[in-house]
Write a structure and sequence with these properties.
177 residues; mainly alpha; 11 helices; 2 strands
Length: 177
């Protein structure tokens, strides 16, 4: 018997997150901060672990939950080294270019990237569990995990700032704002 485990079954709940921080942090995390962390990480345990590392290293949770984004060095380093760098350059470029979109759809990705097979790429990204979240039951619309998208946007702005204006122009001509 084969049982498929989906992303939703792996995500931590609010209670599990509270217990996790109780056991893995030397500092108390306020309920509001914990709720923001859970929202930012979307229950992703590696993201919560990185947040705990940040909290323990900084020694205060005062700004940790609001500052904890995909651009935080621990998160960005992890995602770049363990995820992005293991992908072909064409996939890395697709991810960075499409990270400027709030919602992803095959033709929209094609318009923004100037490449064909946008829907095939999205389906491949979903099959490989690459931080892509379906927004509908027909798998036409997607979005990136918040932390992953933050990191991709920052990386694209650093690596190809000259391309940002062109991508934004393509995005606006497609009607995506």
């Amino acid at each position: 018997m084969l049982h498929e485990i989906r992303r939703s079954e792996l995500c931590f709940t609010a209670d599990e997150t509270a217990l996790f921080f109780q056991r893995n942090s030397t500092y108390m995390v306020a309920n509001a901060d914990m709720a923001r962390l859970l929202e930012r990480t979307e229950g992703w345990i590696a993201g919560l672990q990185l947040a705990a590392l940040v909290l323990n290293a900084q020694g205060t949770e005062a700004t940790m939950s609001s500052a904890f984004q995909g651009t935080h060095r621990y998160v960005a380093d992890y995602l770049i080294q363990e995820v992005l760098n293991r992908l072909p350059e064409s996939v890395q470029l697709f991810l960075q270019q499409t990270s400027l979109l709030e919602r992803l759809q095959g033709r929209l990705c094609e318009a923004v990237t100037g490449q064909s097979a946008g829907q095939n790429m999205l389906e491949w990204l979903e099959r490989t569990n690459l931080f892509l979240i379906p927004l509908d039951e027909t798998r036409q619309w997607y979005r990136y995990h918040h932390l992953f998208r933050d990191m991709l946007r920052q990386l694209f702005a650093q690596k190809a700032p000259e391309d940002l204006a062109e991508i934004h122009h393509r995005r606006m001509t497609t009607g995506e704002s």
